[in-house]
Amino acid sequence: MKQLILDLAWDPLPPFAGFLPGDNAAVVAQLREQQWPGAPIYLWGPAGSGKTQLLHELQARAVEDGLVAQWFDAGSDTPWELADDAALVLLDDVDQWSAGQQHAAFTLFVEAASRVGGVLHALADGAMALSEAAPAGARLGVQFASAGRLPPVDLHVREDLRTRLGWGPVHAVQPLAETDTRDALHQEARRRGLVLGDDVLDYVLVRFARDLKSLMHLLHRLDGFALAEKRAVTVPLLKRMLDEESSKKPTIE
In this predicted structure, what is the pLDDT of residue 134? Predict the structure, then answer.
């Protein structure tokens, strides 16, 4: 009889601590140290290169600092509304946005700029001194960070949105090499208390796309399956898990 396993949440790591940079060390260093609010950040690279994970790390950095972060991507329904206390807006899957989502993203940029403009206008009119605290609800700026598979110049989006996405630093994110991918999987396995043999890694890397996000999800499922079976992680166990998952998928007639 299988043991029933709860889907336990692991303690979150500090921002960027769980991201293996590989050839992206300079990008990670800039994202870690950049002062907010600043110019919009744009990350681009192929699927599985780690763009979305870097956005999540920025989100974790905001949460750690007690700031409000909002997330919008190709799966987010419109309209998109900027929260009154938003300090960070994360925009993912830029290259997959519909016309409605492009309009929603442009509106976020305009709303953030209008808040800054309103405060600066009040200062210029002498309504508040530079030494005074901003009135409740006033925002002195919102940080934007976006990601897509293409650089801004190649995006098929409306021009006014393209200029805003590419206004600030644009970083190309490089996929991990195989050795780095192995290191990342070993690191996550150790965090979970798993022993991941080279034979298991060889099997995974030969038969699955080297998309780190998908591989981490596979490792998560394998962890739960091994715990339920009370077995060590082996290639036969992995094959059995995949067979059981395949048998549970609905057939299309």
Answer: 41
